[in-house]
TrEMBL record:
GO terms for molecular function: oxidoreductase activity; zinc ion binding. This is Zinc-type alcohol dehydrogenase-like protein. It comes from the Bacteria. It comes from Paenibacillus bovis. Residues 19-338 form the Enoyl reductase (ER) domain.
Length: 342
């Protein structure tokens, strides 16, 4: 059986240990059914990678391959594939229930794949899929915000952690939808990044929200998209959400949330987990392809921009360990991308 390069793990170790992520040779898979076999050209890292890799007392009998942001070239197609041909340039996030894309070749269901933006190279494209899907689903599917800007005139959204990976594209999506976008950041460089990527205003998430919002003339907001520390911000979010407003978070909690805080305002709360559709094979699973197609079109029209902030070359274990360390530091702006194999 043909072999391929990959980066993976068999033990869950602190990222500073060399064996936490290793260079490997593993069998190259074959495309069947709805699967595409993609020759991976670039990848990106996300918090899901560091969470799944986090230290625990477990040894895997076979290497675990992480990575859920890929841009590459279709190498083979399964017998049921209809929308792609070998040679197509594609980008996608994949499914958390299958091996990730930190390998030279990767299998992915065509229904969650789209042709990558023509105006971007592989690295810039690899920065976008997981975060774009998370942001688009959170804003349009979970918060129920219409895509038509005319329907959102006078409405506002607060995006907590606007300079992170998801925040960097969420600010663009929300602004394109016609909302007044208020981002949060706590450093001068993250404030500038959020403003450059679509936020109208930026407030400090280390300070009380209401006085800062009142200074902007918006003591309450219609929507909140929480991308960091749901526990920490819960009471503040409940305070500044408008009556009948909606809150969505992507960050799991350590303690139960007191939903009673929302009752008096008839406000609602929803979770967004980008992997839900692929994990459960939902009837609308192909919506992720449609979202990525829309994002690619908006990128090529110059309306959206890549959120890549740093590129490491080539793809190997040492560079992936470096990227994981940066994510775990909590100070990453945008997305860290890795491109090209040795």
């Amino acid at each position: 059986m043909a072999q391929m390069k990959a980066v993976g793990l068999t033990r869950y170790l602190p990222i500073k240990q060399q064996d936490s992520l290793q260079d490997l040779q593993i069998p190259r898979p074959q495309a069947k059914g709805h699967d595409l076999l993609v020759q991976v050209q670039a990848i990106s890292v996300n918090p899901v990678d560091t969470k799944l890799r986090a230290p625990k007392d477990k040894v895997e009998p076979e290497p675990v391959i992480l990575g859920w942001d890929v841009a590459g070239i279709v190498e083979e197609i399964g017998e049921q594939v209809q929308g792609f041909q070998p040679g197509d340039k594609v980008y996608y996030a994949g499914s958390v229930t299958r091996p990730g894309g930190n390998s030279e070749y990767h299998l992915v269901d065509e229904r969650i794949v789209a042709h990558q933006p023509q105006s971007l190279d592989y690295g810039a494209a690899a920065a976008l899929p997981l975060t774009s899907l998370t942001a688009w689903e959170g804003i349009h599917d979970r918060l129920g915000i219409p895509e038509d800007p005319a329907a959102n005139q006078g409405r506002s959204i607060l995006i907590i952690n606007a300079a992170g990976g998801v925040g960097s594209i969420a600010t663009q999506i929300a602004r394109h939808a016609g909302l007044t976008v208020i981002g949060t950041a706590s450093r001068s460089e993250t404030t500038r990044w959020a403003l450059d990527h679509g936020a109208h205003h930026v407030i400090n998430h280390r300070e009380s929200f209401r006085p800062q919002l009142e200074q902007l003339g918006m003591p309450e907001v219609d929507y909140i998209f929480c991308l960091n520390h749901t526990d920490q911000h819960w009471e503040t979010m409940a305070d500044v959400i408008a009556p009948q407003g909606r809150i969505c978070s992507i960050v799991e909690t350590e303690q139960p949330l007191d939903l009673n805080l929302l009752k008096d305002k008839s406000a609602s709360f929803a979770w967004e987990f980008m992997f839900t559709r692929a994990k459960y094979g939902t009837a609308d699973m192909q919506r992720q392809q449609q979202i990525l197609q829309k994002v690619a079109k908006l990128v090529d029209q110059g309306i959206f921009r890549t959120t890549e902030s740093e590129r490491l070359q080539p793809i190997h274990a040492a560079h992936l360990r470096q990227a994981h360390q940066q994510l775990e530091s909590g100070s990453t702006i945008g997305k860290v991308v890795l491109a090209g194999w040795q």
